[in-house]
Amino acid sequence: MSWYDKPLSRYSYFVSHRPYLVILIVIILIIFAMYFSSKVEYVNFSNSDMVPDNYEVVKAFNLLEDTFGNPSSILIAIELDDSFQGYNKVNDLRDYKVIEYIDVISQYIENTDYILEVSSISTAVKEVNNGIIPKSNLEINKLISNNFIFENIISKDYSMTLIRISLTDDFSEEDNAEEVVFNLEKIISSIDDPNIGLNVNVAGEISAGPIVEREIGPDMQKTSSYSIYGIIILLIFIFVVGEVISSFNKKQSKKIKILTVLGSIRFGLIPLSTILIGVIWTFGYLGLVKMGLSSITSGVISMIMGIGIDFGIQTVMRFKQEIKDKTPEKAMEETMKNVFIPMATTTIAALIGFKAMSMGELTLLQDLGKMMSYGVTACFFAAITFVPAILVVLEKWILSLKVKFKKK
What is the overall mean pLDDT for the chain? Predict the structure, then answer.
């Protein structure tokens, strides 16, 4: 007899003969988890999240920021649109209409939150021309030609120029980047385009984070949805289709056949509770430990579901084998004795792998490893508590209905 046989037998007996108590405990834990999951903060992903604070380059950057203020900046790229076919199309960004348009954008940006300074071709032209933008392209060309001030503002072929935006010291990339990028995009879209063939876009390292977040967020939601849909289809195919076909080939009353179909649907849906409860518990724990969630790390939900569903399937499949010649309680006792150790071993092996991810230098990988560990552990506990308890309860209910129908 192994050292774990006795405690495992006791636990198997408890979960099989006290299913309502187990379900009640699980529901209480779900309520607590839902409360703490509401405290999970969704944070913007930034490059600083990728690298640990003890790296020399990060220390140097922080020292630079503390000494000289926030060096952060955002760019707005303005380039000629080659596909534009309008009669007003410009072929040179030194055109006064382009510079006037850029000047309007620059003035609006200067009055936006967290903006310290704006420099562009329009501000440079006004600087060298007593604050005035000439209405003559020839005069503008004279101002720009051979003037070193414009070297880092406009490209040599005059097809692209930049608006450089310096940010204030109280700007935080993690907290304010999304707001600043949104305001800049709003300014660009609200100012009337002179219809001369320009592409205007927010650019720069800081702006990349919110833009990537915006694109990845819906993709992650789609990934999670596709994952759950795929799992449902798989479970229906495994547990429902075969049972339905075989039941209608047997000579049984319609009510018994309907109960058989309902039973197969039950076997198909119950494994889903493993990942649903597991995800809720995971988010609850994230809220409890105050761990933030970004659109990047939220992708682990699909991975948690992919791994966690296996626990529910193992429990249900084994129970289906045991229930053929046993009472629901006895069948579940044997089920738990046979699946607990394999599932626990799988969980421990997964945790070792995720711990290895947490030992890496990149902060993002550490967060992913931790979240995967929480998720797989939560799914395991859901599979050894709620799943066996609800299986026993539903099986006893269906058996009682079958007895009633047979008597009639």
Answer: 80
Residue 223 CB-density burial (10 A; 0-12 exposed, 13-18 middle, 19+ buried): middle
**Residue count of the chain:** 408
Q: What's phi and psi for 63, nearest 5 deg?
A: -65, -40
Sequence-separated (6 or more) residues with CB below 8 Å from residue 264: 239, 240, 242, 243, 244, 247
Say if residue 184 is exposed, middle or buried (CB neighbours under 10 Å; 0-12, 13-18, 19+): buried
In sequence order, the β-bridge partners of residue 17 are none
Encode pLDDT of 8-47 as tens digits. Answer: 999 999 999 999 999 999 999 999 999 998 888 766 555 5
Q: How many angstroms separate the CA atoms of 56 and 384, rounded? A: 47
Mean pLDDT over 77-95 rounds to: 84
Measure the CA–CA gap between 42 and 346, rounded to whole angstroms. Answer: 31
- Which domains does the chain possess? 5-45+216-407 (1.20.1640.10), 73-203 (3.30.70.1320)
- Report the Cα 379 to chain-centroid distance in Å: 19
Confidence (pTM): 0.67
